Each structure stands twice: as C-alpha cells, then as structure tokens.
Amino acid sequence: MEVISILAKKHHSFNHVMPDTNLRDALFRMNCENADYLIVMDDDDHFLGVLSEHEVISKALFGRKPIEKIMVEEVMNTRLPVVDADDTVETCIKLMRQFRVRYLAVYDNFSFCGIISSDDILQEAVSHRAEIFDDEGAPVF
C-alpha cells in the first residue's frame, strides 16, 4: 500500500495555520476542526512544519508566557522525516519508529502533498484487517 492512497482518503483541505498565528487561536482552530495537529504553511503555501498537541504540551504549556503571546513558529515541529508519495506504509512505520514521531511529511517530486499520521496508518491497517490477520486474530507472516 502506497502513502498516496492513504492521503487520497483524507480531506482535501488541510488543517493549516500561519506561523505568525498566536497559540491560543491555533488551539481554538484545532478544537473546532477536531484535529490533533495543524500544518504550518507560509503565505506561498510552502510547508514549514507541524503544530501538534505534543508541541503545545512540551514547549508551551509550562512556559512563562501566556498562550496569546506565543506564536506557532515558536513551538512548531520543523524536523519531521519526509516520505515520498509512492513509499509504502511499511517505510512510514519504520521511519516513525526510528525517529519516534507520529507524523511524516509527504512529498511528490518536491511538491508537498500532506501529512500522514500514525492514526492514518492504523486506520488503514484496520480496514485491511483480513489481509493482515487470520481468523483468530494472529498476524499472517
């Protein structure tokens, strides 16, 4: 299974935010969109990073500034591993484990396609359960 097929099942509009957005507004957007993360894009729609619950908790929650004074660019993750649109789910799992991340940036010929999350991969595995597990629930290897 290729990454691009998983991205095709996701919403075409990205949950995105500008880097100069304050954290309070970004969290409000995450809540309204029921999203675990926001994609940080610049004015030219270039991918800059991801703002996830993890970044908010680890970098901002215990900070000394109120969230209205913290900008997304101060806490976003800019160091995500990158996969190609035709990479496999197995490649994604290996990268996520190697780098201990839940999100990967997906590119196709240097063009940003979106973010694939560990939840996306889990949903894909569940939808293909019959191909992965036998009738008793044991893995088929």
CATH class division = Alpha Beta
Radius of gyration: 17 Å
Strand content: 15-25%
User: Which parts are unreliable, with pLDDT below 50 for 5 consecutive residues or more?
Assistant: none
Indicate the percent of residues in helices: 25-40%
Q: What is the arithmetic mean of pLDDT?
A: 87
Which sequence of strands runs across the widest sheet? 1-2-3
Question: What does this protein structure show overall?
Answer:
It is a single chain. With 141 residues, the chain is α/β, with parallel strands linked by helices. The protein has one domain (3-132): CBS-domain (Roll). Helix content is 39%, strand content 21%. It is built from 7 helices and 6 strands, in the order αβαββααβαββαα. The strands form 2 sheets. The chain has a 3-stranded mixed beta sheet with strand order 1-2-3. A 3-stranded mixed beta sheet has the order 4-5-6. Strand 4, helix 5 and strand 5 form a beta-alpha-beta unit. The two termini are 16 Å apart.
Briefly characterize the structure.
The protein has 141 residues and is of the alpha/beta class.
Key features?
141 residues; CBS-domain; three-stranded mixed β-sheet; 7 helices; 39% helix
SSE map:
Layout: H1 3-9, E1 16-17, H2 23-32, E2 37-41, E3 47-52, H3 53-61, H4 72-75, E4 82-84, H5 89-99, E5 103-108, E6 111-117, H6 118-127, H7 129-132
Parallel strand pairs: 1-2, 4-5
Antiparallel strand pairs: 2-3, 5-6
